[in-house]
């Protein structure tokens, strides 16, 4: 049907390739037959009877070609003959702007079928890509509303003001209000595969929604609590740090939470552990992590292993092996996760969190979510879905061609 001729990926290189080659691959990979059949049964396309499949293809082309408005999509159809051929639209029957607006409204009414397309693409990627879904990264990104939030009655009533640390893309949020970044609009909450850098689940909320409370629902939508799709690791920044989140990841998903702990004085347990969860010996020194023993974390005396010098007059034990402490992981997976924060493995895994920042950048800068022109949470959700579908369909198209090496290079 639609065949792509040239090799891919890095995703930026994919965006730069010949437009209609990309479009044919996307349309071939999208499992949209159920959605299109449902739309074709409804008579709403206008006096000329515009093609539902043509408008769907044109909308996908608009996302690929970074069209900001539906008017831009209509203009693209008017001036690009090859694009009209791929979309199955004749020069004399190009959908009007009003027809495209009605089509978008219909997509909002059938958002469940759109999400089904998303889920089917993710399920196919699990079959095509080795280890897909084993390492999940979670984060949110800002989506600015197409409205002025400083007005008394903004034109987008669903949008809200949100705030993050000024360095939220590369570091922790600041406490000083002057260091905060504010925007009026929405948040796109994403779970992505940290290895392949592809979305697995998402939610779109007003910008004032807290990240922390959405982690559980996002992981459920990603199938992290189902036996056949459970991940090994869930990686997130300290904005998602909470006892309930860590317990859900460990107990329900049977995965390792890789989440920095909030180092607050109130979080410390004097004489037991520091704010990071590292246990303290009776002399007040941080004990040295010495590996995992089944369901326990093993720590040893820091002086015996040559890490620190103990100045106490009395030794913890007379054993030459030194004092040993074993902590059960299940008692407190937030403070004592299966991969301790002191370990090099934890650092390696946490560095994979940057994968979601690259996905956020592509979705916003290359697939149009950084400059939306629709209003209302329902329409913005559908617009976000279209961008995510294009990203997933591009990966499926390459995976079907068994070009896994190129896909891995392309997605980074």
Spans where pLDDT lies below 50 across 5 or more residues: 1-9, 167-174, 408-412
Query: Can you count the helices?
Result: 14
**Which sequence of SSEs, written as H and E, runs from N to C?**
HHHHHHHHEEEEHEHEEEEHHHH
Overall residue-averaged pLDDT value:
85
Distance between the termini: 28 Å
CATH class of the largest domain: Alpha Beta
Structural class: alpha+beta
CATH-level-2 architecture of the largest domain: 2-Layer Sandwich
As for the number of domains, it is 3
User: Per the principal axes of the C-alpha atoms, what is the gross shape?
Assistant: elongated
Strand content: 15-25%
User: What composes the largest sheet?
Assistant: 6 strands, mixed
Number of strands: 9
Estimate percent helicity.
Answer: 25-40%
CATH topology of the largest domain, what is it called? Nucleotidyltransferase, domain 5
The value of Rg in angstroms is: 25 Å
